[in-house]
Specification:
Length: 569
């Protein structure tokens, strides 16, 4: 596939790109020999496709660069910062028509919505001087703002780009121009076996091409890199469960390749806002959970193995200012034939546990605390912190059962934001429901990760979305974890949203943790239009209009996780 020439590094805060100097481009990726492999989805009615490829879960087949996005309601706030709002999610390039499909197997695609200040003539009038006026105009993205009328001065330009992450799988299928790993996540055993044979046949048939391009494929990195995106030590990393981080460059998200000094780890490492250290972990090792720490420059400085009594999926951990909290939920990675359970199942006879260890501790330093009651699963943590009493508080989304095949839709209505208070002195865990609104993808102000906090945000499940194989979120919640009060904002009928992210405004008061905005993707299924919505985090609630709605020039499929990558100083 053709690709645009882009900068090899992310823009620095001191040199925010001038969008006027960029050329708007549309880069199309199409098979060299046949377009059937990627176009058959567009030829079929939704009812004839696998459910996870219908509607806005259907992939897009074009890569775009710097397409203009339009404000359609409200205005970009004057104190909204410059940066990139990036979503990662599954966007399969090759799917065999007779194969089953699960979003977990889709190729990772990054969608970036970039907020950049366009320099006006007044910015150049003073010879690039360093006076107060020049400093102010170079700060917030929407310093003067863009209104519905389109009037603008030192305006914030919004641009949309997207890229597939070039993994080894993506590169190999690009060489042979057909799927090599289609349908490997399928509950239909006959279809699973048939596609395994066809994948093997395609691999053998494409071997000459693969051998000729072995160097590029081998350097692509394993997995699909389709789950999350984080920034650390000046690098932007596309992540997936059990694979090495893949480095991509901003502003156009071109793939550099796997981070060589890194181990494989999951999609949810944590970055300490105080020390800038990154804590990572990986499961599936027979010896136990592997845990490590990188320093603020991205260098590995600590690694240990934490023994576990069983093989379980550990999708997320929590960190505090001085400790790391391991979530040992009994989502076992082994079939239980006696109970008729498949290879991934929640063993409710085994209690959930929290393991507390110093940030630089070893496996032998972990102290374990059982949660009373049947085993449960927490896929995503909102935050954790240390109390002056010595207690450690963890808040996350808990569910009493798991169904991987339908991405937990079957049990989504039972998912609750839950607080666990771990008391080392009394050797006990107490549990409290923070919100009865079923939700997931919880987030906080990133400057408070591991620290005491009050407000968190999450995506609220659609209670009417039952009996399907893909989740839908009808709105965004703001949780006051102190008072256990939840406010729910909804965008309207047939409009669904993704994971929210908190963005502090330029000049935000550190004492006010909600002094900023909530940014979220939205898709109107009637109009088939995708938007970015900016909400006021402080003045948040039902019935409140968004501060701004930005219509995107291309449809953005539903994804997994998002992040805000600031280009402010």
């Amino acid at each position: 596939a053709a690709s645009a020439a882009v900068s090899a590094a992310a823009p620095s805060a001191a040199a925010i790109p001038d969008q006027g100097a960029r050329q708007q481009q549309l880069v199309k990726t199409t098979p060299a020999r046949s377009s059937f492999g990627t176009s058959w989805l567009s030829l079929l009615r939704d009812a004839w496709k696998p459910e996870a490829l219908r509607g806005n879960w259907s992939p897009v087949h074009e890569e775009c660069t710097d397409l203009h996005a339009s404000v359609v309601a409200g205005a970009i706030p004057m104190d909204f910062p410059c940066g990139h709002f990036v979503q990662n999610g599954p966007n399969p390039r090759w799917v065999r028509p007779n194969a089953g499909y699960h979003p977990f197997e889709g190729d990772g695609m990054l969608h970036s919505v970039e907020f950049v200040r366009e320099a006006s003539s007044s910015d150049h009038a003073g010879g690039g001087g360093g006076g107060a006026g020049a400093s102010a105009s170079a700060g917030a993205c929407g310093r003067t703002g863009i209104g519905v009328s389109g009037r603008s001065h030192d305006k914030c330009s919004v641009r949309y780009s997207n890229r597939w992450v070039r993994t080894a799988k993506w590169l190999a299928e690009d060489l042979v121009q057909q799927p090599l790993a289609s349908g490997f996540f399928d509950g239909n055993v006959v279809r699973l076996g048939a596609n395994a044979l066809m994948n093997t046949s395609a691999l053998l048939g494409g071997l000459p091409r693969l051998l000729s391009g072995a160097g590029s494929v081998a350097g692509g990195g394993s997995g699909t890199a389709n789950t999350s995106v984080v920034q650390h030590a000046g690098k932007v990393l596309a992540l997936q469960e059990g694979s090495k981080p893949i480095v991509v460059t901003l502003p156009h998200m071109d793939t550099e390749g796997p981070l060589q000094q890194s181990q494989s780890f999951t999609a949810h490492p944590k970055v300490c806002p105080v020390t800038k250290e990154l804590m990572w972990f990986s499961y599936g090792n027979p010896a136990g959970l592997i845990y490590g720490v990188w320093d603020s420059d991205g260098h590995p400085v600590h690694q240990t193995v934490i023994p576990l009594p069983h093989s379980v999926m550990v999708h997320d951990i929590a960190v505090t200012r001085h400790h790391t909290v391991i979530l040992d939920c009994p989502l076992e990675l082994a079939p239980d034939l006696a109970k008729g359970e498949g290879p991934v199942h929640l063993n409710k006879d085994v209690p959930m546990r929290f393991g507390i260890m110093p940030r630089y501790g070893n496996g032998s330093d972990v102290r374990w605390y059982e949660v009373p009651g049947p085993g449960q699963m927490c896929f995503h943590v909102m935050n954790a912190y240390e109390c002056s009493s010595g207690e450690i508080v963890v808040i996350g989304c808990a569910q009493p059962d798991v169904s991987i095949g339908d991405m937990n839709v079957q049990h989504s209505h039972m998912e609750r934001l839950t607080e666990w208070r771990i008391d080392p002195r009394m050797d006990r865990v107490t549990e409290r429901i923070v919100s009865n609104v079923p939700c997931d993808f919880p987030r906080v102000n990133e400057q408070l990760v591991g620290l005491p906090f009050r407000f968190g945000y999450a995506a609220a499940f659609d209670p009417n979305n039952q009996g399907t194989n893909v989740p839908k979120f009808i709105g965004i919640t703001k949780h006051d974890v102190d008072s256990a009060v939840t406010q729910l904002w909804t965008p309207g009928e047939a409009i669904y949203v993704g994971e929210p992210v908190y963005v502090p405004r330029v000049g935000a008061n550190p004492a006010n943790e909600d002094d900023g905005y909530v940014l979220v993707h939205a898709h109107d299924e009637r109009r088939k239009m995708s938007e970015i919505i900016i909400l006021d985090a402080h003045n948040f609630g039902a019935g409140r209009l968004p501060v701004c709605r930005i219509e995107l020039p291309r449809r953005v499929p539903y994804g997994f996780h998002v992040n805000w990558i600031s280009t402010e100083a």
